[in-house]
Design a protein that fits this description.
A hairpin with a 5-residue loop joins β4 and β5. This protein has one domain. The strands form two sheets. It has a three-stranded mixed sheet. It starts with a helix and ends with a helix. By secondary structure, the protein is an alpha+beta fold. It is 46% helix and 12% strand.
Length: 136
């Protein structure tokens, strides 16, 4: 999770980080990490597009499809998160989840994760260098 949080803080791009599992042919809407105000507004105000979505698609409202519709209309970039989360019901029961990732997303996630790991490694190396190598 650290790589996604760090990337969301340092990027100037409008990015919405979303779970890669349970997208149901749309985009998983359980949670997100948004890198900018614009990205957060896109994610948080998607309900404002519900009527437009239903009219345009001639379909009833479906949360994952609505999120995909709104994000595709925006200039936000989607970064898929390979992080697990659990739903805790009001009765304090934890809902068992299926964290299988759609096969079509696996290459994207692998490439994104390698890139994010390199960015994070660079940051950690800079911190290490400042702390341990500046006096030598």
């Amino acid at each position: 999770m650290e790589r996604y949080l760090y990337k969301s803080l340092v990027t100037k791009d409008d990015c919405i980080f979303l779970p890669a599992w349970q997208s149901h042919n749309g985009l998983n809407d359980r949670f997100s990490i948004c890198s900018t105000r614009n990205a957060a507004l896109t994610y948080a105000t998607r309900i404002d597009y519900a009527i437009d979505y239903c009219r345009t698609k001639s379909q009833p409202l479906h949360s994952e499809y609505l999120l995909k519709y709104v994000v595709e209309k925006s200039d936000n970039k989607i970064i898929f998160i390979n992080t697990r989360a659990a739903r805790v019901r009001a009765n304090k029961k934890i809902k068992k989840e299926d964290f299988k990732i759609a096969k079509r997303l696996i290459p994207n996630i692998l490439i994104q994760n390698v890139f994010l790991d390199l960015v994070l490694l660079r940051k950690k190396f800079k911190e290490f260098s400042k702390k341990h190598l500046k006096n030598k």
